[in-house]
Fold:
Amino acid sequence: MKVLKPAQIEEMFLVYQEKQTLKAVVDTCKISYPTASKYRKSHKWDERLAKIQDAVVRRVSKKDENHRVRHAKIGMMLQAKGVDKIQNMTRDEIDPRLAKDLIKDGVDMERTAIGDVPVDNVIVLVLPPGMEGIR
Structure:
């Protein structure tokens, strides 16, 4: 096997990492196929590449998880705003469509964020004063 400098070996790995073929390494780095193949095995390029890819997947998964948590929190805040709007208005001031939309959008956003199915319908029932505890 032809002995190469560390910089040449790293260049070969970078080409292999990008194209994932020994032919690309041979053509780009101007070395023989057997030399490229031996360095691939002796320097464990496939294992290095697998570790790099695993690290990328973990980073993306963590970012996606954080994104879902943030959306779930926003959904819960929308639900709370809808309920608060209903609770702090008199019967004549309530726009049930607005309250329903806030609650439904919040529920849908939260459920989607946690991987659940959005709801089909939300019913807002406005009870007269004194009947809030009756179901």
